[in-house]
Amino acid sequence: MTAWGTETPIVIRRITNYYTVLWEGLELLCLPRARLKKEQVSIRVGDRVVLDEVDRVNRTAAIAQVLPRDNELTRPPIANVDQAVLVFAADRPAFDPMMVDRFLVLVAQSGISPVLAVNKADLVDPEGLAEQVGPYQAIGFPVVTTSARDGDVADLVGLLEQRVTVFAGPSGVGKSSLLNAVHPGLELKALDVSEKIQRGRHTTTFASLYPLELSSGLALVADTPGYSHLDFGPLAPDQLGWLFPEMAPHIPDCRFQDCLHRSEPGCAVKERAELSESRYASYLRFLDELEAKAARLSSTSLKDEGTVKSKAIAGGGETKLIKLGVAARSASRRLVRQQLATDLHEDEGEIEDDLDETEE
Ligand code: GDP
Ligand code: ZN
Hints:
Distance between the termini: 40 Å
Bound molecules: guanosine-5'-diphosphate, zinc ion
Strand content: 15-25%
CATH class of the largest domain: Alpha Beta
Radius of gyration: 24 Å
Number of domains: 4
CATH superfamily of the largest domain: P-loop containing nucleotide triphosphate hydrolases
Order of helices and strands: EEEHEEEEEHEHEHEHHEEHHEEHH
CATH topology of the largest domain: Rossmann fold
């Protein structure tokens, strides 16, 4: 996990073509150098940048360069996210391990470190709570328990310092209450609703990072929850096991290279991994989903590629020709690409376009 330092300027907000960059405790209003625009360098919230023409009095500067990104999320569009705090409720709504596992896989896919926060700890007894979080602690996931209602958030706060954090989790678990308990006045935007409204109106607002002055230091928290779409992106079924940290170390020892760890002979994962029943049930369920998706994708391409034509041939017979026209092939490739794009939720281009439309 890479903690950022305030000595590196970091983009925390964007309004049309203006970027707010946080640098050494100052918020500077910045325009990108014309060269960046010409070279179509994209600048995202979370980007670490090199500044030019810093005017400390007027708090302005120019963005001269965008430093390479560690990672980038598409929803919300934020670069260099250090961690995703996955918030679940101990109760109301009931703790759902499969949903926890789903979020953990999604976070693993995007290469961001997860933290599991089990909120509403006040609603269950300590034994019940330990039962919920135990299996995740055993695998090595960082886990905190919180109660936003009782203001019991110290463990969570300790993890936010000096990091860029995105909160995620089902609705109703207490994400905005938690942020509010951490830092009164900061409420998470409800992503789904606002997104729909924005799309309807063809306007776009961008995710922002909020600097939280904690007693222990500065934290940057995204104001929009992450992972609002719970579909796995493109992922080959035989890659899923790598995203379960308790399975991964044993995968190279499976007899078959493409072992799915279901019922194959010589499966080291089934023989040796310390895999809880509930985690394995999640794995099997996700595997089914990925296989179904792969099957759907390949049947789509077959349908579009093969146009069966009967053609009379000399001598009265008939032969079936499967016509694989170039157009049909590229159409099916386009479909697959569209599906992949949907899976990836890559509508960043669209967001940029929307912005250009609404610029004054
Ligand atoms: P979000 O949808 O994840 O942002 O959840 P909210 O923050 O809106 O909280 C949903 C509901 O759970 C609200 O009625 C909160 O008052 C309640 N809530 C949030 N945190 C806690 C908690 O720690 N304990 C209890 N008992 N209720 C909580
Ligand atoms: Zn195996």
